[in-house]
Amino acid sequence: MALTDARALFQNLEVATAAPAEDQRLLGQLADWCHRYSPLVAFDPPHGIVLDVTGCDHLFGGLEAMLRDVVTRLRKYGFAVKAAISGNAAAARALARFSRGGVFSDVGDDSILRLPLVALEIEETSLVGLKRAGLRELGDVAALPRAALTARFGEAVVNRLDALFGRAARPVSPLRMVPVSTAQRRMAEPLIAMEAVEMLLRQLGDELFSSLEERGEGAREIEAAFFRVDGQVRRIAVQAGRPLVETAPFFRLIGERLSALSEPLDAGYGFDAVQLAALRVERVVHRQTSLDVRRETASGIGALVDRLSARLGPARVQRSLAVDSHIPERAFSMMPAIHQTADEALARPRFASDGYRTVGDPPARPIRLFQPPQRIEAVAGLPDGPPMQFRWRRVLHEVALAEGPERIAPEWWRDNLDARARDYYRIEDNAGRRFWIFREGLYGRDHAPQWFLHGLFA
């Protein structure tokens, strides 16, 4: 009703401004909290949460004990909650909203048949039509022929009945990635001391890696979830560049991650549940590496990358990745170093020019590139002679040695009509400094070719 009418009826009416965004944020926090019961948690609009608890009830002493634990905890936090467990999500939603709730093992029992017509959650016009026909409960509608229902009220009523009675599947789309394997502990008394939390993490790590070992897999990403007594959930993820198969390296990485947190892990009134989940795994192939120096070196570098990524963040520790392009500034891209595989760690990026150079030759590409290339003034012979001298940053350099040109054509398929061919030269001046210089444009064909310094050799 209108607010003025409500105030006329209730003189001491308490009014609060609606905040849908805050409601949704709080619902998201509750959904995150519900992961202590099942990894498959999803929203059930407008104000519900649905869990797929298949195979999880034995961890809580059965379905009745699980439901009782959920309701009791949420009510302690100050929420008014109704909950039901049934054979499918649609039936559980209807029983939770339009009955007293509880555990209903059979979706075809009398509890669903006795639900009011509003449990169909169909359009108002169809609902009014069913009531005018003298129908009061779902059992009355379910007893009617399907063809007559479809012809009179459309397919929405029939589809809804199929969902309620489990004849049509309604899969749960989880909010978070479903872990491959998990290890969890629920404590009778909350853990407050961090020493006890670390000991528990070691025990959970042993359980998690034991289950992964049976599958012949190692963990590339592990998430630790800490459930506090007050309902707050803290998640800390650890990634590794190589599959982790033991607790010791994982514990070193989680220690680095915890020590680098901007907001330290706070137990508050204590953690009543801790969970380790392997989110990404990889098949582990055991190899003898004691005689392979390259693999031993790659293993040491991989461990260093894992520790740096755990402390600084994966996005801050990057490596170059070769890209199939002749344009130097596009010939590589950067990606988190922790995402590389074991084979990529041993591979050496190759360029087209490698096949024309032998051991001991100077490098074809400089170590340092300028982006964008820096404009210079150069004096060179026409049409394709190397520069004899050039001025860079107000300093004049006399060329002693020059090699080139190496012509690189523009990538015409990128629809860049202004791009011109480049002639690259490797230059050494009188002081022994080496530069990588190119001329953009060709004399006699392009208008006003220009010279640029693109890189410096070590």
Automatic annotation (TrEMBL):
GO terms for biological process: DNA repair. It comes from the Bacteria. Keywords: DNA damage. InterPro entries: DNA/RNA_pol_sf, SulA_CellDiv_inhibitor. This is Protein ImuB. The lineage of its organism: Bacteria, Pseudomonadati, Pseudomonadota, Alphaproteobacteria, Hyphomicrobiales.
